[in-house]
Design goal:
Shape: globular
Strand content: 25-35%
Helix content: 25-40%
Structural class: alpha+beta
Largest sheet: 5 strands, antiparallel
Number of strands: 5
Number of helices: 2
Radius of gyration: 14 Å
Amino acid sequence: MAAWQGLYEKVRAELCPGSADAWHNGGTINSWEGTIMKFVLEVDLDAVKEEPGPELARILRYWAGNLNHYALEPGVAETVMDSAYSPVGAWRIEADNA
C-alpha cells in the first residue's frame, strides 16, 4: 500500500467513523448529520522553506493527527505552517453546494 493510501484511510476513518463509504468524490464527505461538506487543504509549495515533498508529507501527517481537535462543520479553518513556522497555506471545511 502506498504511503498516501494509508494516510487517506486514517483520515477517512477519523472523519467518518463507522462509514467505510462516506469519503468520495475528491474529498467530499457526507456527514452523519446529512450535510454535504468538503475538506479543502491548500499549500503554497513555493512558499515552503525546505524541500517541498518532505514538508508536504509532514503537513499531511500533522493535520491527519490533529483534525479530531476541531469541529468538522462549515466555516472551521486553520492556517498551515511549514517546519520553520511560516504560514504556507490553510485548510477549511466548506459546505458543498454542488
